[in-house]
Structure formats: C-alpha cells, structure tokens
Amino acid sequence: MDMGLRNKTALITGSTKGIGKAIAVELAKEGVHVLINGRHEDEVARTVSEIQAAFPSTSPQKATGDLVDVEQREALFEKYPNVDILVNNLGIYEIMSYEDVDDEVWEKYFRTNFLAANSLSKFYLPNMLKNDYGRILFIASEEAVMPSGQMPQYAVTKSMLLSLSKSLSSLTRGTEVTVNTILPGPTLSENVQQIIEGLIPDDTMSFSAKEKQFMKATLPQSEIQRFIKPMEIGRLAAFVCSPYASAFKGSPIRMDGGMVPTIF
Ligand SMILES: NC(=O)c1ccc[n+]([C@@H]2O[C@H](COP(=O)([O-])OP(=O)(O)OC[C@H]3O[C@@H](n4cnc5c(N)ncnc54)[C@H](OP(=O)(O)O)[C@@H]3O)[C@@H](O)[C@H]2O)c1
C-alpha cells in the first residue's frame, strides 16, 4: 500500500537503533526524507548510509546531537527549521525500585523522556499549523497506562506524554495536523536483547528459547508471548504519519502484544 508520504521530511529522535531506526526505515520505504538522530556521529552516519543505499530515491540526512541538551537542540532547530513529521521516540528506561529513585534520577527522566519531546514539539508545531499539514507522534509505552511498579520513574514520564499529546492535539482543531501517541509493549530493540542476554547468560540456549522462558516467567500477561518486532511498530508509525490516518487526533494507540488487559 502506498501511504501517500512521498517527499515528506521526518525527524525521528533516537533513530540509530531499535524502534526509532525501524520507524525511520519504514518511513524511508514510503519515500520520506528522514533526519537521523543519535548522540554518536559515527552511528548516525552509518544509519544514514544504510538508508540511502536501501532507498536511493530519498535523501536521509544526519541530525546528530544530544536532544536533552538545550544548546544542541537549538543547533538542530537552526539546521532543520521545518519538518512535516516529528517522531518523538527518544527515551531511556531501566528497572528501578522506588526507594532508589532520587530527585536526580527523576529529573534525568523528566528531561530526557518528557522535556526534550515537549521542546521539539513546541518548536515544530507552529509551522505545521501554518502549512495545514503535519504529524507529531510520541512513542510512549504500555507502562503509561499500566505502571508495573518496576520502573516508576519511567512510567510517570510516559503518562505525561499521553497528556501532552492530547493537549497539543486540541491546538490542531480544523487542520490536517495530528498529534498522537503509540504505546508499544515489550519490543526487541538491541538494548532489550542485551538485557535478556544479561538476565539469562546461557551460551547453550538459543535467543528464541530465552525469549520463551523470559515471557513465561516475567511477562505472562503478554498474549503474543514474544517480543514485538521493531518493524511492527515502525509500520504502524508510518501509517499513523500518513494522510490515511488524519482522523486519529490525540489518540493513544496501543500495540502492546495484549499486555494491557482492559478494553480501553
Ligand atoms: N524496547 C521496548 O521494549 C520499548 C517498549 C515500549 C516503549 N519503548 C520506547 O520506545 C523508545 C525507543 O526504545 P528502544 O528500546 O528502541 O531504545 P534504544 O534501543 O535504547 O535506542 C535509543 C535510541 O536513542 C538514541 N539516544 C539515546 N539518548 C539520546 C539523546 N539524549 N539524544 C539523542 N539520541 C539519543 C540512541 O542512540 P545513542 O545512544 O547513540 O545516542 C538510540 O538511537 C523509547 O522511548 C522507549 O521508552 C520501548
């Protein structure tokens, strides 16, 4: 299906790996010129080359920088003052017990998972409204609506994104701009794969056997009993960014493998 995205420009934050990279690849597949972001110049350059080779009719560009840092964000705004699509994917997560989450950790999560996304949205939204076209997409988590208690510092920041998404959506009334949020469930990014390998350090087991064991023991509520593939989130994100998804306004869109047990 042609999603009608050819020649749009998209900034995907945190797109050298994992879900962000998969979203960038799926958008490039649709003819979108993607701006690749991460803190490491070599990884950004490698991702740009890979996407350029795979989708030669597009012009992927480097958007290197730590987007938690105000000056580096401003440098990015100067370099790329306009985008049609902004995917706020960048986010950090780790299992922590509540008593270990001190103010410094709260602040780090707030700045990384919320404030960076808010600042980027605040900068790019006005021109989208002026152009009467644009997409802002937040990547939250099932933890936003179903905090497990295993990472309170993370769950709070992901709930905040849902609220921000709805507030920003209310500013788009009567326009072709949309602001939405995807809530992925457990997804097999390189980072998650490393965490599983660390939890089950058995050289004789295949990764697929480790995945089955982990799912059964730790995530029995997952109805798919496997990790979601980053590409699955990427494809959904490309659709939500497309003109066919104009009626999604301020929506929380779950692709959680059945993790959340409620109807809504
Ligand atoms: N994986 C899951 O199970 C899962 C489930 C639900 C939601 N999510 C959400 O999905 C998003 C992506 O997760 P993921 O697992 O794909 O993450 P990941 O594998 O850790 O990838 C993170 C990406 O962000 C970049 N990055 C990190 N800090 C940055 C910063 N300050 N400025 C710019 N780039 C930065 C990383 O590159 P550098 O390190 O080189 O900068 C990398 O490209 C996150 O928001 C996460 O909360 C993930």
Automatic annotation (TrEMBL):
SUPFAM superfamilies: NAD(P)-binding Rossmann-fold domains. It comes from the Bacteria. Transmembrane segments: none annotated. Gene3D superfamilies: NAD(P)-binding Rossmann-like Domain. Belongs to the short-chain dehydrogenases/reductases (SDR) family. This is SDR family oxidoreductase. The lineage of its organism: Bacteria, Bacillati, Bacillota, Bacilli, Bacillales.
